[in-house]
Amino acid sequence: MLNPDGVYLGNYRCSLMGFDLNRHWLDPSPWAHPTLHGVKQLIVQMYNDPKTSLEFYIDIHAHSTMMNGFMYGNIFEDEERFQRQAIFPKLLCQNAEDFSYSSTSFNRDAVKAGTGRRFLGGLLDHTSYCYTLEVSFYSYIIGGTTAAVPYTEEAYMKLGRNVARTFLDYYRLNPMVEKVAIPMPRLRKEKPPPYKYPLLRGSASNYPNGKGDKKSSVNHRDPSNSF
Question: From start to end residue, where is composition biased (Basic and acidic residues) (predicted)?
Fold first, then answer.
C-alpha cells in the first residue's frame, strides 16, 4: 500500500498532496513521494544483492472503466523475453475465472513511462518480470456468458488467492494438481548485464531505459501464439 494517506481520504489515484504516485517512479522525492522513494530504494537494494533473486514485480490497481481483472506488461526487442512474460498471465487466466487474458496488453506508451512497471522493466535484467494487475471497480464477465457479476470483497480476495496459486503453478510447487508442462519457449543464451546499477539518488538519467523505448508507442494484445 503506497498511498495510505490518499486512500484514507477516499482518493484512489492521488496522494494527500495531489500526486499520482504511479507516474513518479523515475525520480521520486523523499519529501513529496516518501513511500515511492522508500520502495524504490528497497527494490534497487534487493536487485544489487547477489543473494537475492528478484523475479517478479506486480503493481496492483483498481480500474474505473474496464471489466474483469487483466494485466499490463512491457515490450522488449528481445522476442524471447517478450514471449516469456506472457506465461504468468496465461496461467492466471486458467486459475481465475474473472481474469481476462484478452484484455491483457503489452505496451510502452510514453504516458506510462513514470509507472513502476515501465521504470522497473527498464532497470531490472532479463530474469525479472514486471506487471500491473488491474481489477475492475465494478464487475466481471465469465467467459462464454454475457451477464456481469458484481465484485465483492470475497471475490477480490479470491483473485488474490488465485494469483498466489499461479505462483505455485509457475514454479511447479502446487501439490494439489497433476504436474503439467508449463509452456516455456526455448531460450537462447543471453549475456547478463556487465554490472548492476548502484543505488543512486538523482534524476532519471541515473537509470537505464528499456531497450524498446527508442521506438514509438505500440500496443500488443498477445506477444505470440506459441503458448
Answer: 211-227
pTM of the model: 0.77
- Cα–Cα nearest to 204, from 90, 86, 113: 113
Catalytic option among 134, 153, 154, 190: 134
Would you call 134 a catalytic residue per the annotation?
yes
**Given its phi and psi angles, is residue 160 left (phi above 0), alpha (psi -120 to 50 degrees) or beta?**
alpha
What pLDDT, on the 0 to 100 scale, is given for residue 177? 67
| Strands 129-136 and 56-63, sheet pairing | parallel
Tell me the pLDDT band of 109, cut-offs 50, 70 and 90.
confident
Helix (H, G, I), strand (E, B) or coil at 87: helix
Q: 16, 9 in Cβ contact below 8 A?
A: yes
Mind listing the pLDDT tens digit for each residue in 119-165? 999 999 988 999 999 999 999 999 888 899 999 999 999 999 999 99
What CA dihedral angle connects 77, 82, 83 and 85, to 10 degrees? 170
Cell numbers at residue 133, please? 494487475
Pull the grid cell for residue 109.
506508451
Using left for φ > 0, alpha for ψ between -120 and 50, and beta otherwise, residue 79 falls in: alpha
